[in-house]
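3.2 Worked example (two chains)
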Amino acid sequence: MAPKQQKVGYECASCGHREVKWLGRCPECGEWNTMREGAAPAAGARAAHTHKFSVPLDAVDPAEGARVPSGSAEVDRVLGGGIMRGSSVLIGGEPGIGKSTLLLQIAAQAGVQGRVLYVSGEESAAQIRLRADRLGLKRVGLEVLCSGDLAEALAALDRVKPALFVVDSLQTLASAEAGAVPGTANQVKYCALELSDWAREHGSACFLVAHVTKDGLIAGPKAAEHTVDVVLMFEQSETDVRFLRSAKNRFGSTDEVGLFTMTERGLEELSDPSSVFLVRREGGSPAGAAVAATWEGTRAILVEIQALTVPGKASLSRVYSERIEPARVARVAAVLEKHVGLRLSDQDIYVNVSGGIRLSEPGIDLALAAAIYSARTGMALPTGVAIAGEVSLAGEVRPVRRMPGRARAAKAMGLARVVGPPDAEAMKNEDSWERVSTVGATVRALFGSPPESR
């Protein structure tokens, strides 16, 4: 069999732009008579490497790193202040949680100058139009491409040259260079690299939707997460509250959390989070409930932690906790048993967080200890108390960041008494909260003299 003839292409010697036929003038840089004959790349293959030169750091324009608003204050909060030019953002979440709705809202409301391209491999153009009409979204210059071919997507990007583009989803894209089946590890990695490189080279912002596994992790190789600049996880509680968290962010903090609620008009920002995570009751809280003043990113959130203890089966203690790490619950219970004399080694411990938010900040330790102590002894905490502080294995209450801000947020929500750790750097706020230095002192301050060990 005769060998297959290699196709011939033409590359600009000035900028590296490629064409399938000879042109007198390069359409990319405008230079004349710079097209040189060479082997053409295969279909879907990446463009040849252009010649780039190093530049002094002082010569880089800081304005190129300016951020633009996404149209959502909560998204801007998680991104670190807005959308960065040339950045690539990978967002994952459970099916039906609202990823497509959120990104369509960003595509229609982002404050970028220029056109926006929405590439969908899961929906038709009519479906996207119906959703946009239902949400009341309109934008001049918003274009839609419904295709699962990476080559077609890259060709559309070269034609439209958008300031922002969305790909929904990464697992539906396929390239001839990476195999024939979309969604494979090689396809996900290759397509993520191609799209993020295009965004970086053209100064365009890129949002990529990713599927997740049954464990809640982004499906595909970790190399895809390393390729992009930001990795966001979209989570849902038992209620209508959605949480947008950052697992990786080259341009900001990963401690921020964005809060949304799903309504008929799409995803709306949750302006007052504490009103959702606090339970208002008449006549005081029951035993086992404690209000934690936690700090998420740049704001304080008041959350109710609920605990329940029951005798364990065969005298074995087990911990059941989804929103707080079970290892943390077991550690706090061990500190209570050692330094307060509260017997928990034969108890099953159940812990829940009102509103379904996942808590990992160290400042919830003291409130968790108070909730477990209250559940085990049957004594309810006093009404109108918020608690914050980290608990050490020695039974000490360690300082936490932004304690004055936590105290102000608690009092703004009507909680007149705040219990927390001593803070030498915040002595000017002497009356802001009640200082406790140990877990035993916390128990005495909240419950009086501890009862006999049970």
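3.2.1 Second chain
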Amino acid sequence: MRLGFVLGELLTGLRRNLSMAVSVVLVTMISMYLLGLGLLAQRQVDTMKDYWYDRVQVSVFLCVQGSQYANCGGKATTAAQREQIRSQLEQMKPPVKDVFYESQAEAFARFKEQFKNSPLGEQATERAFADSFRVSLADASKYDVVVSSFQGAPGVGRVQDQKQLLDRFFAFMNVVSWAAIALSALMVLCAILLMATTIRQTAFSRRRETGIMRLVGASNATIQLPFVMETVVSSILGAGLALTLLWATVRYGVSGYLSRALLDTAFIGVPDVLAVGPWILGGVMGLAVVTSWLTLRRYLRV
């Protein structure tokens, strides 16, 4: 089989079915982009878990005057109760790693800084905040030790575990990533059907050429290879565009804008795109070859 003949047939087929080839490229690009987003979202969840679970804190909020917590009775925590809580926390090392005290004024100032661009930051008042002890843990799984020790203790309004909040957030992120993968699976099905339709129409439009090739004794591989190559080339172009979009999304959106806006959060980077890239390209090539081969067996008898 001559390489020049195969390339000539490939270019001829792409030129004759340019609109269908472009459709395959676009559908493949969209499906692989969605699949890549789903895979990268899962990697982002894993990255954030590794980052945040090492920084999980248990917050022991104290009572303030007029507090609505049942354990407070509307009274503020006394100085003696505050020192008792601090002393008890210090005695729990380990699993407690560090203990930080945050006053009511400091909590209010931190809230104002975090929500400076939000109406919440303008409407909040200092009376809505309570002083607290921020407890860093050596092992995030030991949070229940602190919670059980201080829940309902004198002077304690409530005990908040950040791990529970993070678990709910990560569960939501997992749902989003799986939804993107499910949507990409639907788009992959559309790509398969479009590939099969393209090959069928191409085979029908070139039935005279294939008939002549049969008469002169051309092998099955010689006849089928140009059809397969057309699908593979279109699919690889679509996957390449998808990877380019993923690279731009991560490079300028995640690693660029988000990493500058949220300095205290870990994000994925371009290496993560490079890690999923071979899987996407390999999957697309395999999908194109299998789809082409099965379609040709049915519509191109040689």
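3.3 Remarks
The chain has two domains: 3-52+167-299, 56-161.
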